[in-house]
Amino acid sequence: MTIKKEVFVDLQEKYEKVIKLVEEDSKLDPETEPYLSKYSARQILIGMKANIENLRRNQSTETMCELKLTAMLGAVYLYLGMVSIDTEELSTGEKHLEKCKEVIEQYEMEPELILVAMNMYNQFGILWSQREPEKSKIYLNKAQELYLHYKEKSTPPIDISDLFKVNLETSDTAVSQKNFEKVYTFTLYYLAQIYGVMKDALKSSIYCHITLQRQLEMTDYDPIDWALNAATLSQFFMEQNGFKQARHHLAASSFILEKYEKELNEMTERNEAYDALIETFKHRSADVARCWTKYGICLLSKSKERLLHHTEELHEKCTLSCDLSKLKLTSDSTISTDDLSHLDFEGIDVSSHENQIADKFILTIDDARKVFRNAHQWSVKAQQYYALDTLASDYIEIVLDQTQLYLNLLFFEENPDNQAKLHKRRIDLLENILNRVNSKYYLQYCRKVWFELARTYADILDIKSEKLRNTKERPTPQALTKVNNLVEKAIFHYSNFINSFKDSVTGDFPSKLQEDAEKAFLQAYFHVAALYGRFVTLDKEMQLKNTEASLKNYNFVTSYCDRNDEAKNLISMEYGICKEMTTLLPVKILKIKGS
Fold it and tell me: Mean pLDDT, the chain, as a whole number?
């Protein structure tokens, strides 16, 4: 007996109601009942399940209709599983997905079932992603396998929404094909996440890239999200020394943002929705600008490390490459050279953005300045959105990035006077922060600034002291005063950093500092102890006072480390020097007193 048309019409209406509840209404649910719409969808799905099961049980139908009912029932179980997972009922979700698998397993490669099957395996992947990543990967690989096998067939897949239509012949094959590809894109995206969880970061990055490439090809992406994801991926590539790939992904990110900006400018209706789009665009453009800044910092920093590690015979001994496609892979690697050779985007020309900055390791001051200027310009652009009076934390972080740019540029500058000038620019940036923010509310940032300032003044002190040592003339009083001023300022900022750890009530230091601050705290004390020994004075009383202050700080470090053994490992070199100085300085103090 043939199933009446009204039965399918009723199921179609219910299916459309479910989709509306899940995809649209759920976004408007009140905070007090966040799953209201999805619970409603579940009730409808339960009714649909009963109806379809009854049809399968009681109707003697032709094979084609039976396959349609099987696909519909599988789809209902799929959505029941998805709703349960979304409402954090994982065990119930798993049962529904297992039931879906039981219903459709024999027919997975049929046009009516292929999208249900791929979606089901994707959901299994999501379900197991946090509990058993390896099991999640098995399910996602199954979805990938289904896709690749079905691609070999000439029969177009049938979309899940079309299963609930009275007549399958009215299906839009273009839509179903697009959704087929879209589901596979999700599979690749989930695989990227799983490989990340499994600590296979490079393979995860490859899948991320493929996902982005597919979104471009299908023109199925949100420009802001796509640009952010490409820029984020670039940060991983640059940390792996893949500056060619990092620059390309950043350039693609900027390309997509520029394209989107033109679309925004062409909009004629200017309302609150438009203003929100502009705000989001400015915000995320600033984030991409910050990624460009980080790229410049990383390129200069890695170039510096490379030169330091290969001071002689650089070209003969240094095998470090800035192109991931030339990476030497181990025998147990989960990726291939071919994977690494296809990390660029097809279909877009981003050369104009790429040509603005190098993607090769830096060797000369001229090349370093070009990288510096480009990265600095991006940081200034980011500050146009992240202003101090509105988003202070981000503003301070951008300034700290700017100081890192100067610090890395310093390495390539051989002229001591120019080095000192670059240090002074860092000082101006850092002191500007201290003058404009309240250390009570931004203590963590101020600590970073105090430490950086102290270190910068100490670096200038090294430059000036070296200059005095190399001169044949007797130092002028002004030159000696300048040295002492630099010592005082370095001690002043280190002391501010140190004292910020005192208890606000008792004024005492804790017996043990938090692990993330302990090393810097002890190093600051060590540097203060050493700085007291760098004052230049002929006054015996001042010499005595400075030496005693130096000994006091060395003693503090050794006492702290003796009370906390693990701290010795944090500053093993400094601790050894402190132990030695606590033996030598008492002798020096006695000599000064005797004289």
Answer: 92
Residues 117, 120, 121: CA angle, nearest 5 degrees? 90
Radius of gyration (C-alpha) of the chain in whole angstroms = 33
- On the 0-12 / 13-18 / 19+ scale of CB atoms within 10 A, 89 is middle
Position 3 confidence tier, pLDDT thresholds 50, 70, 90: low
Identify whether 511 is part of a domain.
yes
Dihedral, 461, 464, 469, 471 alpha carbons, nearest 10 = -170
295-337 pLDDT, tens digit per residue, is 999 999 999 999 988 765 555 555 688 999 998 888 888 888 8
Q: Are 249 and 231 in contact (CB under 8 A)?
A: yes
Length of the chain: 595
**Selection from 244, 474, 308, 286 nearest residue 382 by Cα:** 286
- DSSP designation for 28: G
In sequence order, the 6+-apart residues with CB closer than 8 A to the CB of 414 are 365
Q: Tokens 């053994």 map to which residue?
A: 565
Q: What is the pTM of this model?
A: 0.89
Residue 157 DSSP label:
P
How distant, in Å, are the alpha carbons of 402, 440, 441 from that of 436?
A: 17, 12, 12
Closest by Cα among 145, 68, 76 to 111: 68
Best CA proximity match to 430, nearest among 461, 459, 460, 398: 398
In a domain, 524, yes or no: yes
CA angle 272, 273, 274 (to 5 degrees): 90
80, part of any domain: no
**Predicted local distance difference test score (pLDDT) of residue 327:** 87
Helix (H, G, I), strand (E, B) or coil at 308: helix
Task: Check the CA dihedral 576-491-426-467 and report its sign.
Answer: negative
Residues 238 and 326: their CA atoms lie apart, in Å, by: 14
* pLDDT tens track for 36-54: 999 999 999 999 999 999 9
Q: What is the mean pLDDT of residues 359-368?
A: 95
- Give the list of residues 6+ apart from residue 392 with CB closer than 8 angstroms, or none: 437, 442
Q: What is the pLDDT of residues 256-281, one digit of tens each?
A: 999 999 999 999 888 999 999 999 99
For 85-123, the pLDDT digits (tens) are 999 999 999 999 999 999 999 999 999 999 999 999 999
The domain in which residue 581 lies consists of 501-595
pLDDT of 1 over the 50 cut: no
Q: Which residues, in sequence order, are CB contacts of 346 under 8 Å at separation 6+?
A: 213, 216, 217
User: Are the CB atoms for 453 and 496 separated by under 8 Å?
Assistant: no
What pLDDT score was predicted for residue 194?
97
Helix, strand, or coil here: 361? coil
What CA–CA distance (Å, rounded) separates 306 from 410?
A: 15
Considering its fold, how many domains does the chain have in total? 1
Q: Indicate whether 585 belongs to any domain.
A: yes
